[in-house]
Structures are given as structure tokens and as C-alpha cells.
């Protein structure tokens, strides 16, 4: 059994707990791509069997979130699970004023990740160092934000949706929006709505996932073109060789005699294997 499940991770669960429930229920081994914080809910992509070898290809897909930003207080974790470390008055806000501010965060921007994050520093996870009370300084990173849409502004709460690229922390985005508004803030709610064309409306609770919900690897990589190889080219590709092709650059799902065998990348008219399904 190999493929992917669209899981609706409940609030209060770790991503690992959601995966473990599926592993126990279906008696499979797996992993997940794109960790959701315990306070967050929504779409989690869980892979089982050899499908986990293909997680790397999902990372460039944009992710969409809905979030609620509470102004006036900032926690050390930038979410409800942390301790309040800063307070500041909340200015009078309108939807128009907030929309003007969030536009500054659209595009390629620099973002300082939260101290409570899975990033490694000195060989340790940042959140482990932060929990021990060590002073840590994370450097700004370039991230991509495609859109930020303000849904409502009510008192000290701003509800918004955003579509962001890999490595973007919505908790940090909320912090920075609050700072730009002249105050501080943290997220009280975060829900992942989509990953690429996969949507949470098509996902299921971990305890409801069944074998019929499995998405095969070749179908999950929907955005890639297909190429079918035969004879010498097929043998060469399966043994790690390179093949000259008349194809646009990019990744392709590769088939041999109609059977999906992995992903190849075309560069300069040359197709080479990037991730193959292990031979059974």
C-alpha cells in the first residue's frame, strides 16, 4: 500500500499523532509533509509506503491558510500555547487601513522565523533551545507570499486568508503585520485550507481515513507531464542513465510500458531520473 491521504488534522493534535493514528488503523508505515502546529488544524498530506520518497516534489506547491490575529499581546510562540512576553495598545483600525498594511507583505519578502520552530540552530531544533531558555537569534529568510486577503476586522481581532510558498510561517506573518500596525500580536486560530490543488474539503479526520481514500503517487503528482519510455531508453533510465528528449524543461512522471516508475527531470533536452520507485 503506497500513496497519499488528505487528512484534516484536528486542533490540539500534533501532526505526528494524526499520522500515527492512520498507521495503526491501516497497519502501514508512513510520514507527512508540511508540519502543522498543535494549535492549528486543516490539511495534512500523509504518505504511506514508498510514496514518502516523493515528498520533495510537493514542497514548491503554494499553501492557503485562514488565520485570526489577536492584537495587543505577543506570546513567545506567536500562538495561544505560549507565554505573553509583550503588550501594546491597539490603535483604531479599519478594514481599509489593515488592507493597506498587508499589501506590504505580498511578494518575495524577508521573514524572521519564530523562535519556536523546527529550524535547526547549532545542530539543535530552535524550539528545543527556546524551551531551555537559551538566547537564540534566527536570521531573516526570503519567503514568498502570493496573497493576503483581510476577511474582517473586529476590535482587536483580524481574520485573514493567505497563500504562501514553502518555508513561510503564518505565525511570523501575523507578528509582522501587527508590528506594521504599530502594536503586537499573535495567532489565536490557524487552519490550512489547501496545498496546491488539494483542498481540506476533500480531507477526512484521521480516525475516518480508509484504504479507499488513498491517492496513488502517479495521480498525486497531477501537475507533472507524462513521458512513456520503451526498450533501450527504458532500461537506461531505470539504471540511472540520461536520455535525450524533445521536451520542455521540468519534472515529468515517467512510465515504462505504461507502468509508473518514478519522476525524471528534463534539463537542456536531457531526461534523467530524479526519484525512482524501488524495484519490488
List the main descriptive attributes of the protein structure presented here.
five-stranded mixed sheet, 280 residues, Pseudouridine synthase, nine-stranded mixed sheet, elongated, 18 strands, alpha+beta, Archaeosine Trna-guanine Transglycosylase, Chain: A, domain 4, 39% strand, 3 domains
Please explain how this structure is put together.
The protein has 280 residues and is an alpha+beta fold. The chain has helices at residues 15-26, 95-102, 126-131, 170-180, 217-220, 231-238; strands at residues 3-9, 30-33, 41-48, 63-71, 73-75, 84-87, 107-111, 120-121, 124-125, 141-154, 157-164, 185-195, 198-199, 225-229, 243-244, 250-256, 259-267, 270-276. The strands form four sheets. Strands 1, 2, 3, 4, 7, 10, 11, 12 and 13 form a nine-stranded mixed β-sheet that branches. Strands 14-16-17-18-15 form a five-stranded mixed β-sheet. Strand 10 and strand 11 form a beta hairpin.
Write down the secondary-structure element order. Answer: EHEEEEEHEEEHEEHEEHEHEEEE
Query: CATH topology of the largest domain, anyone?
Result: Pseudouridine synthase
The coarse overall form would be elongated
Structural Rg: 22 Å
Amino acid at each position: 500500500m503506497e500513496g497519499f491521504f488528505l487528512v484534516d488534522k484536528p486542533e490540539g493534535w500534533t501532526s505526528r499523532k494524526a499520522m500515527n493514528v492512520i498507521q495503526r488503523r491501516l497497519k502501514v508505515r508512513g510520514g507527512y509533509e508540511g508540519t502543522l502546529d498543535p494549535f492549528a488544524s486543516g490539511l495534512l498530506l500523509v504518505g504511506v509506503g514508498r510514496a514518502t520518497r516523493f515528498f520533495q516534489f510537493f514542497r514548491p506547491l503554494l499553501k492557503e491558510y485562514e488565520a485570526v490575529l489577536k492584537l495587543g499581546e505577543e506570546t513567545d510562540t506567536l500562538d495561544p500555547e505560549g507565554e505573553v512576553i509583550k503588550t501594546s495598545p491597539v490603535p483604531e483600525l479599519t478594514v481599509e487601513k489593515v488592507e493597506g498594511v498587508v499589501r506590504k507583505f505580498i511578494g518575495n519578502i524577508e521573514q524572521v522565523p519564530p523562535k519556536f520552530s523546527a529550524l535547526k540552530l547549532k545542530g539543535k531544533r530552535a524550539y528545543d533551545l527556546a524551551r531551555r531558555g537559551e538566547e537564540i537569534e534566527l536570521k531573516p529568510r526570503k519567503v514568498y507570499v502570493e496573497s493576503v486577503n483581510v476577511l474582517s476586522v473586529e476590535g482587536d481581532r483580524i481574520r485573514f486568508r493567505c497563500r504562501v510558498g514553502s518555508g513561510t510561517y503564518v505565525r511570523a506573518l501575523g507578528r509582522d503585520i501587527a508590528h506594521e500596525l504599530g502594536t503586537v500580536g499573535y495567532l489565536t486560530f490557524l487552519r490550512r485550507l489547501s496545498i496546491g490543488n488539494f483542498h481540506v474539503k476533500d480531507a477526512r479526520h484521521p480516525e475516518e481515513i480508509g484504504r479507499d481514500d488513498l491517492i496513488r503517487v502517479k495521480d498525486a503528482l497531477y501537475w507533472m507531464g507524462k513521458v512513456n519510455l520503451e526498450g533501450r531508453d527504458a532500461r537506461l533510465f531505470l539504471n540511472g542513465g540520461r536520455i535525450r528528449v524533445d521536451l520542455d524543461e521540468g519534472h515529468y512522471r515517467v512510465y515504462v510500458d505504461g507502468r509508473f516508475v518514478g519522476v525524471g527531470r528534463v534539463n537542456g533536452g536531457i531526461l534523467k531520473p530524479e526519484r525512482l520507485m524501488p524495484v519490488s
